[in-house]
Every structure is written in structure tokens, then in C-alpha cells.
Amino acid sequence: MRQQQRATRQGGGFAMGLIVGLLVGLALALGVALYVTKVPVPFINKVPQRSAEHDAAEMERNKNWDPNAPLYGNNPVRPNASGGTVTPAPAASAPAATPALPPTAAAVPQPGAPRDPAAILDGQPAEPPAPAVAARPAVDPFSYFVQAGAYGRNEDAERQRARLAMLGFTAKVTEREQSGRTIYRVRLGPYAHKDEADGVKQKIDDAGIESALVRVQR
User: Which residues on neighbouring strands pair with residue 178, listed in sequence order?
Assistant: First the structure.
């Protein structure tokens, strides 16, 4: 009888311990679940939450986004709706102020022909002076040649003329009797003005050909 009572007590204690263990396990599981839901999860809660305002602002930025915006610099040139380009208008510069003349500047008479005393008393403006007639330069009585050499043989003169032709100059070979000998001269010209002949001579000298300026009476 005592053994049966003891076995019954042991069975009741085991069942009670099992129930208490289950309750304690459930309480611990509930506590862990609550802790996990309240504690922020790494790499997830750090991401900012998006709202409808953020989405609308991002859509507006994407609508007006231009991939070539970094190429425009400080003065952007953005494409318009028709596919062309709109160049920004330059800033309007302020007009330069015109310096005011002193009050006595208008009353200072300009040099010129003497005025009539009566006109001065009446306050009439002075007549502008007549323009001076430019003097015409006198006609040069000489013609000018640029001589690039004088030779005793025609072949040498023709060789020099060909050399000048390769440099872009047109020369002629002329003959002249000098001390009983025939001289072949290579000349460029004639030129009506000395400055023109001087310019041609300078170009020939720069090309490495010695030359001389010859003046001939017209």
C-alpha cells in the first residue's frame, strides 16, 4: 500500500515538473521573441525609410535630369522641347556713362577764321573752318629697276633669270654695249615709285640674291 502511494506521488511530481518546465520554456521563448522584435536588426534598420514625399521628389529630379549637365560648366546650354539648344542670354552690361563737358567748354571758341563781332554779340554759332585741301604729290620724273646681276655671257644671265622665276619674280635680260663689250643685265621692272622698287629689292636680298636699285630718267 505504501509502495503504491509512493509511486503515485512520484508520478504526480513528474507531471507537475513537466508542466512547470513547459511553462518556464514558453515564458523564456516569449521573452526572447519580444526582445528580438524590439532590438534593431543590423544592416536593415540602418536603411532610411522611404516615404511618398521622397518618391515624388526623386521622380521630379529624374524627369529633369540631364546626363550632359557636367559638360555645361558655369553657363549651361540645356536642350529645349523642340530638340534644339537654348543659349543663355549674356548679362546686359550697363551703358558707359558719357562724361559731361564743363559748362565753359561750349563757350570756348575754336581756332579758325576770325568771327564778326556782331555775330559774337548776337550769340550766333561759329562757322566750321573750311577743310584743308591735301597737296598732291609731285610726279616722280624717274623710273626704277631692280638689277639682279650683269654678265658677259647670255647663258649666265638666263640662268639667273630662271633662278628668279623659281622664286616667283619675273625678270628680263637686256643687252648693253659697255667698253666695247656686250653686257647682259637681269632686271625687274620698271616701277613707277621708288618705295615699290625698294620692296622688291628687299625680297630679292632676303632670298640670298644680291641686287641693286637702278634709276632711269623718264
Answer: 181
Q: Rounded distance, CA 77 to CA 16, Å?
A: 85
The torsion defined by the Cα of 13, 19, 21 and 25, in degrees rounded to 10, comes to: 180
**Are 137 and 195 a contacting pair, CB within 8 Å?**
no
Q: Specify whether the CB–CB gap between 213 and 148 falls below 8 A.
A: no
Residue 216's DSSP bridge partners are 143
> Quick one: which of 191, 192, 187 has its CA closest to 204?
187
β-bridge mates for residue 174, sequence order = 185
The least confident of 89-98, 115-124, 183-192 is: 89-98
Region 171-191: what's the mean pLDDT? Answer: 93
